[in-house]
């Protein structure tokens, strides 16, 4: 009987964890402005270190949440004020196997450190529009280079 109780408790814990993941995702995505977004969390190996997740635009911040995490808070917050896009590129080598074919990788510099983010080609336009948003008549210096390769 003890074995059956142990198995039952184990199944209940697993189902509770799965339910919590779905509830967490529903709480984070409740008010729209969500994009699929991968962030490179480690640069130790070429083409590796990408973590899938989703980003949420909230005012002047892009908040990134890991896809498979129990955390309710964002794992990383990118402020529009200190963010500059250095270049963009297509996935290379091992990256082609870890993300969809139509994704673009953006190398950005924030106030804290460089960061690489990957998103769908159709999302890049919206991201750059959000990044360059400025009051009427002002010029935004946030996009460093306009001579990007055709994607």
From TrEMBL:
Domain of life: Bacteria
Keywords for this protein: Membrane, Transmembrane, Transmembrane helix
Pfam families: DUF2550
InterPro entries registered for this protein in UniProt: DUF2550 (IPR019675)
Membrane-spanning intervals of the chain: 6-23
Protein name in UniProt: DUF2550 domain-containing protein
Organism per entry: Micromonospora craterilacus
Higher taxonomy: Bacteria, Bacillati, Actinomycetota, Actinomycetes, Micromonosporales
């Amino acid at each position: 009987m003890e074995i059956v109780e142990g198995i039952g408790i184990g199944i209940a814990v697993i189902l509770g964890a799965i339910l919590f993941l779905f509830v967490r995702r529903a709480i984070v995505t409740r008010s729209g402005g969500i994009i699929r977004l991968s962030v490179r969390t480690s640069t130790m190996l070429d083409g590796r270190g990408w973590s899938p997740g989703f980003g949420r635009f909230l005012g002047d911040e892009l908040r990134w949440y890991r896809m498979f995490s129990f955390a309710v808070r964002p794992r990383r917050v990118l402020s529009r004020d200190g963010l500059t896009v250095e270049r963009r590129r297509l996935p290379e080598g091992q990256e082609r196997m870890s993300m969809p074919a139509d994704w673009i990788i953006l190398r950005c510099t924030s106030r804290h450190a460089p960061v690489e983010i990957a998103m769908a080609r159709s999302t890049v336009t919206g991201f750059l529009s959000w990044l360059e948003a400025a009051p009427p008549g002002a010029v935004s210096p946030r996009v460093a280079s306009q001579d990007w390769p055709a994607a």
